[in-house]
Amino acid sequence: MAKNSPAEFLNQVRAEARKIVWPTGSETVRTTIMVLIMTVILCFFFLGIDSVFQFIVSWLTSLAR
Fold it and tell me: Where are its TM segments located (predicted)?
């Protein structure tokens, strides 16, 4: 692979940076809300799973007494 000069490298970086398409403000807000909703849903899901496993372990340890 051929090495580029630092100036050529910076030109390539600028050219690639011009291709970036940033999300609009409304897209950012919409995505943030979706992430928060999924976080809450997963929080309750893992709380439920953890509670079930806690009950099972408590029940099994009570049998050993």
Answer: 33-60
The count of structural domains within the chain is 1
Q: What one-letter code names the amino acid at 46?
A: F
CA distance 13 to 7: 10
* pLDDT digit string, tens, across residues 5-45: 999 999 999 999 999 999 999 999 999 999 999 999 999 99
Domain that holds residue 46: 23-65
Residues 6+ apart with CB under 8 A from 4: 12
Q: How does 33-47 read in b/e, with b if 16+ C-beta sit within 10 Å?
A: eeeeeeeeeeeeeee
